[in-house]
User: Fold these one by one.
Assistant:
Number 1:
Amino acid sequence: MSEANEGMDVGYVAKLANIDLTTEETALFQGQLNQVLHYVEQLNELDVGGVEPTAHAFPVYNVLRKDEVGTSLNHADVVANAPAATDGEIRVPKILDQ
Amino acid sequence: MQYEATIGLETHVMQKTNTKMFCACKYEYGAEPNTHVCPVCLGYPGALPVMNEKAIELCCKAGLLLGCEINPYSKWDRKNYFYPDMAKNYQITQADQPLCLGGQLTVDVDGEMKTFTIERIHQEENAAKNTHVAGASLVDYNRAGTALMEIVSNPCMHSAEDALAYMTAVKQIMQYGGISNCDQEKGQMRSDVNVSVRPVGQKELGAKVEIKNMNSFAFIKEAIEYEIDRQTALLESGGTVDQETRGYDPDRGETFTQRTKENAHDYRYFPEPDLMPVKIPAEQIEQWRSELPELPAQRRVRYVQELGLPEYDAGVLTADMATSDWFEQAMRHTKNAKAVSNFIMGEMMRLLSEQNCSISESNVTPEKLAGIVALIDAKTISTGAGKQVFEIIFNDGGDPKAIVEERGMAQVSDDSALEGWADEAIANNPKPVEEYKAGNPASINFLMGQVMKASRGKANPGAVMQMLKQKLDR
Ligand SMILES: [Zn+2]
């Protein structure tokens, strides 16, 4: 990884997310996001040798609901919220690879 | 050089729940597009998922039925990808801590019992349905977020037959267990198939080709056979197999390279912060285990050992759950298992396939078939007449006894009636009579046929035979 991509390769991540960035934007976000990463990296100074890894900070488990049908959204509202629709389906730019 | 194929399957099964995995929207196949959607399954900002407890139960029960260990602790992860079938740009799934671990399945592959091993079963959510039209794609989010589990086998199969036997068994078990209807036409069971080929004796597996998202067993079989041939030919000619994703074109009977986005497989998994992990206590697992139904393999054994049916019958009857349940219902009204089995395997299956309907739609109910069997067992009607009654009910409905009475189908065992026909047959056919008396016992069959004809099929064959012998042996 080149120096400019230290920490995070913004160009690559943008591509994964289908975001079109100009060279200038890429450089700008690269700098900004690296700052964020450096900030988070402060955590590396802590000794966590004796701490169990966990997916969550709170010891809460099994937040479940019964399998009972609730209210869904009004169809007209769903369509109104979508960028475009055809025959009740949400229309998006043609998906190439399928 | 000899080559061998290695096959692994990732089978997606949609669970039989009323609602979706993480929201209370209804799961309903064929509903008007985008009518069962909400902020959670549409990925609106700020919406929070909540786990469906029934889905967790069904996933764990599937695991128990397939011999898995239930993971006492499991968690959720985000699989990130950008595609309109998942509005929030990630799918909630389980990466490193799935609900079920390990497992195995022993199945009959062309007469040989083989055990296939399962790596894991994890719970996830389904994607939306896309339709592609000119210049655009249309998305129906009704399916988005529905409960979907993925059963991942080890790369332990070596032929299309192995894969087919495995999938058939998984489907049977899911249906019997009430986990899923596995209706492939409704997309309730789909598989990704991994196929690789290597020289026999080589330790490492060959390059893996993945054929994605297939629901038809017949196409899966064809695709595997094609892929094994293609890869073997490539290796034999000194070429190499590319690790890639391929699609299957059933019209051409060929697989083809699927264009995939560069880096599309970098899913950047990370723990789902919106969902708390799942802990399943041992008592819960034992409770679920005690609720598991009898599986096809167990039913087959019981049909043979307790009902005295041949292995063949037991296999046919348990092949699908609807047939097996129907048989069991009939057995509540009769003790004659073989007669019921014969009717199901014979008349029932023939008529169902001719009229392309399912056993649950048949006018002949389990109770009515038991009624027909009772009439045959009581010698009120012949087996042939029983078959006619079956077909009449199948086509037009009705009650067995009433039909036999209305149509005068009861067989005649009454000596006085039989005697007239027997005397007539003997008087009119001196040659067979002579032959019989000269020591050719088969000649009596001709006379018997004459009596049956005269009675228009209603004479009781046993009684006729007795009557003829009585007269001729005198
Ligand atoms: Zn929803």
Number 2:
Amino acid sequence: MGNSTVEITFYGRGGQGAVTAAQIIAQAAIRRGLFASAFPEYGAERRGAPVRAYVRLSREPVLAREPIERPDISVVFDTRLLNVFNIPAITRRYIVINASSKDEVKQVLSSFNGTVVYVNAYEISTKHLGKPIVNTTMLGALLKVLDLVDLDTVKELVLETFGKKLGKSNVEALEEAYKMAEVIV
Amino acid sequence: MKQLTWKDLPLGGYVLEPGNARKNLTGTWRTERPVIDQDACIRCRICWMYCPEPAILELKKPYTTKSGKKYDLTYEIDYDHCKGCGICAHECPVKAIKMVPEVGGG
Amino acid sequence: MAVAKALSVREELVKERLGLTSNYAAAYAVKAVDVDVIAAYPITPQTTIIEKLAEFVANGEVDAEYIPVESEHSALSAVVGASAAGARVFTATAAQGLEFMHEVLHIASGLRLPIVMAVPGRALSAPISIHGDYQDIMNARDSGWIMLIASSAQEVYDSIIMAYRIAEDSRVLLPVMVSYDGFLMSHTTEPVEIYHEEYVRKFTPRNLSRYRLDPRSPITIGVIASPEWYYEIKYQAIHALKESKSVIKEIHGEFNKFFGTNYDIIEKYMVDDADYVLITYGGASSGNAKEAAKRARERGLRAGVVRIRLFRPFPTEELVNAIKDAKVIAVIDRALTPGNTYEGPVFSDVITALYSSGVEKPVVSVVHGISQRTMLADDFYNLYKMLDEYAKTGEYPRRTVFMGLRT
Ligand code: SF4
Ligand code: SF4
């Protein structure tokens, strides 16, 4: 994507790390000299409750401080969130989705006209982290279609955010997702 | 006397002169004065502790009571600052302090 | 080229460009100015400020006494004591915490103590809300503090640095509150250029030219004042707050020169030729209003925004000057003054400012973003269109407009 401003919404559940993922992307962009803002839509902060986190990336300072109503990219941590937020209808270009199979993706996103990036994030994150915390995995898949930030800067920030030990396994998850994610047109 | 204006006062109402409460002669407030019966007083120091001003003086003044008991200390009232509240008389365990009306006396 | 020079100066001063929330930006500023005592109690959405500071202290990056107190009342009381003894202090709170501090707010200003406090604003209970608005901050406005309202994380960082210079200035000696949007700023990650600490410290040398508690030369702070003294002592603080405006402007000027920034006590966005002006404070209202002004200009409306950055003392002359040529004005409040003629608190301030200058204007009171009710740039764009209607018809609402309220 070469646009000057890109709006991304992360959809997750409390405890899956959607807010952290949004912050990492914003920080990576800021480190590369871009303007960015990342902010969470807080509801009651309960584990399992639906959570949205918004990211704006831009080459110019961002004036608006409003929720993103029509994201260019939606990053969806859990297919059951698609209907909760009406994601296929509001997303402009890409849906990056965690699903168990390509068939499932086709089924749940039949109404979506844009491009889909599919990754089995539960499998990859469980393999590297021992539990299905998918945020860093989803970042790997997102990087397939987001060129305003680069893999190395994101890896750097994942290491800084999670510390040495946890950081390393998160970077592994991220790298594998970056390799495995499939762009379905 | 010209009263101080807001410009003359120390900032925030700070009191810059240590111990100047002594200049406030609260003794003028009194309607009754405490009088200590030195023969009845057992030098327990309770009045000295309770006085809010504080206006009970603990003096190194030897005293021998009528019954011959000797004390090194004497408790007296600082009448410049005693405001006559009567707490000392109320607290004294042997009722050695009497409150005497100021009117006519003084 | 003055601009080019300022830019090159700034390059030298900036240590790194980080992605920080406004709360972290506050903590980084406190770290840079080198405080002696921090006392605070956690409360959403403030907690991450003092968590970060606790981390700095634990790592040895900040050499301060960190007092984890049992309540906000104690937090401010502790820094009142420390400040009276000459320490440079910091605390932070929000919402119910600021309410719980309320009586000590008046003590801090009455005792003329240069305390700096950060407050990301939040709605007040009941009903219970953790979300952002400015009710807590508005309730503090009559407590005699200098109040700055920032609109970006960078501005939070810069304002806290300025706040120490302002508070400790011997012509001021008043506490300073640096506030900003709870969540919409306190938890939003955005770019912040942080400075090399040596430069920040050069800008904020400890100013101890005030009476302090010191056993070697005892004084009394916090005495009772009988009615024949209270009024005069209170008036000193009232007068100092009013007069502080010129000092605040002077320090803004110095800061701009030193750090290559462009702060003023109000911010004007496309107002010079504007027919329709929105008066705002804080990050979300101002950012969305500016975006709306841009959109309105694209569609032929002469729209502008005046953002109030210095809230107390109120920038009366500057504000009136900025809006005197506008046709219709609206004041966006994110707080309420229930039962008043109009429910927008800053609306009343604007009307008073206009009245004091003999300027008569149609001004609309608008309330929005209560408990972080979603505010869109388009809401403000629609407001500009409404102001255009009012200008044409000459009719405008004589009651507060509650935007975003389901009716
Ligand atoms: S009467 Fe009150 S002020 Fe006077 S000595 Fe007794 S306790 Fe003190
Ligand atoms: S309380 Fe009574 S007995 Fe005790 S020292 Fe005072 S006067 Fe004497």
